[in-house]
Structure formats: structure tokens, C-alpha cells
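Exam revision sheet. Question 4 asks you to relate a sequence to its structure. Input first:
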Amino acid sequence: MLRSYHGGSFAAGRLAALKQEAATGISVCIPARNEAATVGRVAGAVRAELMERYRLVDELVVVDDGSTDSTARVAREAGAVVVAQRAAGKGRAMRSGLDQTRGDIVVYLDADIEGFDPGFVVGLVGPLLSDPDLVFVKASYRRPLADRPGEGGRVTELAAKPLLRILFPQLAAFDQPLAGEVAGRRAPLEKLDFEPGYGVEVAMLVDLASSYGLAALGQCDLGERRHRNRPLAELSPQSETVIRTILARAGWPPPH
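Answer key, C-alpha cells:
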């Protein structure tokens, strides 16, 4: 059975004390490409609330994946360490963030979140600090499309979740299998073969479940998540990448 948590069950101050007792380092990594409009608010909130006020987070890194706007400058001004790479895909940016940090727990956040709440990080690290048997926590949340509740996450609902129900039914309980907000222990993450592009999140989920079992994974309800909704022309290649990733993990196409 999947372990499920609620972000409101955890408090930053209490988790900071647990982290200190356990001598556990926590790093936050934000992969970003052309997200100058929002990355500063995300990085700035982590810096102000979780690094300076509560001392919960030790490192904050933004991996700039070949942005052509001011993403790098905005992130740096918000207090993040910026690591630049040529446009190589989200998965490679996430791997770069892992390589550039040292924390025992690594938190990944998307850069395009509107109205970011530092409670996202609190909810993701809370289960890991509280339960030593967990290795990975994925965000769960409600996703509106503009002002229509429950209509967001089109690639998730139309591609990822149906395929997972058919091919990996043990993972069907994850509400947001493509969530970019995740946290994991360093050792298991370092063993992963990060998919280079947008299939990275679902690949992480399938691979970690295969290696450690469903009991070592959890999800945490973080409330509502709003982000820049993309047109279908941009979602179509993302959807194809996700479909190909899931099929490949299921052994399709079979070897000749």
C-alpha cells in the first residue's frame, strides 16, 4: 500500500530540529529553462523561509538549461547558486543538480510554479525525515486549468495515468506521477539512469518502485499547484516522450 501524507502535518521548525538531530543535509534543486517570470519567486521563498529563517535547507541550486531569457540572473539575484548547461533536457538538468549538491536529501522543484509556497518543500522532506524506511516522496496536488478546478495536468490524465494503470498497476495510486516536485535520498537517486527529457519524473517513479518496492515510496498532498499552462502544440511532444518512456520501462518494443 502506498504511504500517503498531508503537507499540513509537518512544520518547518520541527523538521529543522529533526534534521539537526540526524545530521542530515538537505539540498533544493530547481531545473529551469526560460522561467525568468517565476523562478525568482520560487528560489527567493526557499532562501528566505527555509534557509535563513528555519535553517531547514542547506543548499539551493538552479540549473539553467540553456535559457535565452534572464532566468540565470533572476535566480542568482534571488539567492540561488546557478549552474549553467547547454539546452540538454530536464532530466539532464536534474542530474546536474544532483551532481552539484551534497545533501543527504535532494528536493526537486519546478521553476514555473505560480504563487509558490515553501510548504511544498516542507511537505516533501517531512516524510523522509520522519520515516527512515522511505527513499522517495512525490507531490500530490490539485491542478486547475485557468479557473476550472481539476482540469489541469492534461498529459498526466490522458497519457501517463492510463498507461500506468495498464502496465504498472501498482503505481496507479500516485495522484500526480509526472509531478516535478519530488524529494529523495541521495544514494538511491545516484543509482538512477536519469531520462534526458520530460520522461524523467515517471521514469524515476517506475525505476525506484522496481528497485525498492512500493513501501519505500510515498506521496504528500501539497494542496493546489498553479503553473503556466502550455498550449497543445507544446504538450504533444511532452506526451509522446512520456508515453515512450513508460512503454520502454514495460519492455516495449520487445527486442528482436
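Marking note for examiners. The first helix runs from residue 12 to 22.
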